[in-house]
Amino acid sequence: MPVTVAAAAVVLKAGHWRLSADRYRIELTSQPRHHCPQCRGAGGWWVGGANPEMEACGCWAYRPQLRLRLLPRPKAADEPPF
Ligand SMILES: [Zn+2]
Q1: Which of 9, 14, 29, 70 is most buried by a 10 A CB count?
Q2: pTM of the entire structure?
Q3: What is the 51 CA–ligand 1 centroid distance (Å)?
Q4: If you write DSSP's letter for every residue of 1-46 in order, what string do you get?
Q5: 30 CA distance to ligand 1 centroid (A)?
Q6: Tens digits of per-residue pLDDT, 52-79?
């Protein structure tokens, strides 16, 4: 197995939670519920006419999100020096 696999971000899904982690942070975010009576697991629906917008369903949108920072992100290398 190449080393790149170990360096890639990890995404785990357990129930209606999604855990994603890489070397910079660990994130635990909620996912739409499959048996949600409103969105049926889609996480939202389209509203509006000419310019429809995605309306987030309350089954996941208002749940807390956990984020742990690990290593500080490196500064962008292409920042112009003064
Ligand atoms: Zn829902």
Answers
A1: 29
A2: 0.53
A3: 22
A4: --THHHHS-EEEEETTEEEEE-SSEEEEEE---TT-TTTTTSSEEE
A5: 11
A6: 888 999 998 888 888 899 888 777 766 6
**Cα separation of 29 and 48, whole Å?**
27
Q: Which helix (H) or strand (E) holds 51?
A: none
Residue with tokens 């309350």: 58
Q: How far away, in angstroms, is 2 Cα from ligand 1 center? A: 39
How far does the centroid of ligand 1 lie from the alpha carbon of residue 16, in Å?
A: 11
Domains of the chain, residue spans: 10-69
Instruction: Round to whole Å and give the CA distance between 68 and 26.
Output: 5
